[in-house]
Specification:
The protein is α/β, with parallel strands linked by helices. 27% of the residues lie in helices and 26% in strands. The termini are far apart. It comes from Actinomadura graeca.
Length: 265
Amino acid sequence: MDSVAEVLGDAVTAEVRGAWTEVYWLFATLLAAEEARLYQVAGHAPAAGFRPWRVTERREEAEDVVSFVLRPADGGKAAPHRPGQYVSVAVDLPGGLRQPRQYTLSRAADGVSMQITVRRVRGRGGAPDGAVSTYLHREVSAGDELLAGTPFGDVVLDDGPDPLVLVSAGIGITPIAAMLDHLAAVQPGRRVIALHADRRPAVHALRVQTAQAAGRMTDLHRVTWYEEPDAPGDGLVMAGCIDLGALTVRIPAKVFGPDLWQQAG
C-alpha cells in the first residue's frame, strides 16, 4: 500500500487505504485457506518442502527437448498424480541461487516414478537463455538427483465416457502426452481427436511416446500441422497452421459449437 500511495499520491486517502488493506487481507486469508486445503488433500506437510528424486533415465525427445524420469531417492513411493498436473522442481544454480520451476508431468502415473519434459529456453533478441532449463539440459544426467515437490494442478483429464478433443502446440504437448498415455491404459476405446501444431518434425516433442499410446487405442484420430513439413510425421500430417475446416473427422458440437465435418477427399 505504501507503493500504491507513492504512485497515486493524494488519491489514496485514509479511507481508500483502509478499504484496500481490508480487501487485501480478505483475499490473503482465502488464498491461505485454499493452500492449506490443497496440502491436506495431497497428504503433504508444507514444512516437508522439496523431496530428493533420482534421475533414472534421461531421454532426448527432440531438438532442445529432454525428458527426465525420476524416482524417489529415499526409496519411498511416488506421489500419485492425475494426467495434466505439474510438479515444482528446484535447482541450485552456480552462485548458490535456488530457483524453482514448474513442469507438467508428461507421462501417466505408474506408482513408482514420474516424468518431466523440458524444452531449453534459448534467449533471442538480446534476452538471456533460460537459467533452469539450460542447467537441466547441460548438467543433469541419469544418476543425478533433483529436488521436486508434490504434484498439483486442476486442469486434469475427466475419466468420463464423453468424446475428447485434445489440442496442443509445441512443448504444450506435455499434458496431452500424459493424457494419451493414461487413456491408452484405462480407456483405450474412448473416442479422442488429438490435434497438434509444431514448427517441424525435428522439434516435435514426445512423438515416440504419443505414437506408442496411439497404437494401444482403438478410436483415436490424430492430426498434426507443421509449418515446415520437411520429414514424415505420425498420423495425418498437414502443412501450415491448425485448420479445423480441413479435418475429416467430426468434432462434437459441445466442444466447438456446430459439428465440423469435411468429407474425405
